[in-house]
Amino acid sequence: MKKTILLFFFITISTLSQNLDLFPGSLNIQPFIANTLEPKLGFLFQLSKNELRLDIGNSLDIFHYSKNESEVFSFGADLFTYTLLRGEKDFHFPVDAVDYLFGINGSYKKVEDQYEYGTRVRISHISAHFVDGHYDASKGEWRDGLNPRVYSREFIELIPFVKFNSLRVYAGITYLFHVTPDYLGKDIYQLGFDYVGNQFDSETLSPFLAYDFKLVNLSKYSANHSFSAGIKFGKPDGRGFSIYFNYYSGKSIHGEYFDFTKTYSAIGINLDL
Fold first, then answer.
1. Which of 19, 113, 143, 209 has a CA that sits 20 to 30 A from residue 161's CA?
2. pTM, whole model, 2 decimals?
3. pLDDT of 214-242, one tens digit each?
């Protein structure tokens, strides 16, 4: 029996390895551009307020399994931070708040002619913290009378999508199976699109336009809007450099400010690794 089980195991591994690509060079499903919780490596400079956001993060596909030439399954991991800073004289940027996200993801994608469709699932943890830049040492107190508070959430997110040529439309639902403070709602609903064009007849210069809508459940439902438009230098689905305009209106994405409403326009710079 043991020999039979071992033989079956090695046959299965051998069969799968023919269609298995370990640590592929690209993501099976590209990040949804206007979605605020996506891997980024760059800055977002607010135009009307002395605040900026620093993102340091990445998503990595650990393997791709190709059922056939048009269908790909993937499994990967996410690890990123998004940080709120202030600009001060002498090129100082005190760190006010930082959020950490880490988790795993899986995806499925199928390509048929000009259509592409699939879904991405993520299971993640987020925790939020005030940092020393939020502390006013001269007064010996936290800025604006806002003391640190415990905020964390563990959630599962499902985002199916359909893509036709350069236009991708998606909808999503997020369920928070654990959240602190515990009085917060546990459901988030999402709709959005992104368009990555090639009007310049260039494989390394791509304009893009994207919008994301979230209906978040705090003590009551609240709408978050995120709009992005810009140009990416590099391969549309690969490495490159982006510069873009972003407009955001809704509840803050930073957990320490989860019940604060934020509205701003900003210029963003991002490296796609």
1. 19
2. 0.89
3. 999 998 999 999 999 999 998 878 788 99
Separation of alpha carbons 187 and 173, rounded Å = 7
**Contact call for residues 204 and 233 (beta carbons, < 8 A):** yes
- 166/174 Cα distance (integer angstroms): 26
The domain segmentation of the chain, as residue ranges, is 23-272
Rounded to whole angstroms, how far apart are CA atoms 227 and 170?
Answer: 15
Give the C-alpha separation, 175 to 124, whole Å: 11
| Residue among 91, 154, 129 at smallest CA distance from 257 | 129
Q: Are 126 and 152 in contact (CB under 8 A)?
A: yes
Instruction: Judge residue 90's burial from the number of C-beta atoms within 10 Å of its C-beta, 0-12 exposed, 13-18 middle, 19 or more buried.
Output: exposed
Angle at CA of residue 243, ends 240 and 246, nearest 5°: 130
3-state class (DSSP) for residue 16: helix
Reduce the DSSP state of residue 34 to 3 states and report it.
Answer: coil
Residue identified by tokens 């236009």 is 167
Q: Give strand pairing partners of 172.
A: 190
Sign of the C-alpha dihedral computed for residues 147, 47, 204 and 37 taken in this order: positive
Instruction: Give the position of tokens 């023919």.
Output: 18
Q: In angstroms, how far is the first alpha carbon of the chain from the final one?
A: 47
Reading the block at residue 24, the tokens are: 């592929």
Structure tokens at 256: 């320490």
Residues 35 and 26 sit within 8 Å (Cβ to Cβ): no
Strands 135-136 and 115-130: unpaired
Which CATH architecture is the domain 23-272 placed in?
A: Beta Barrel (2.40)
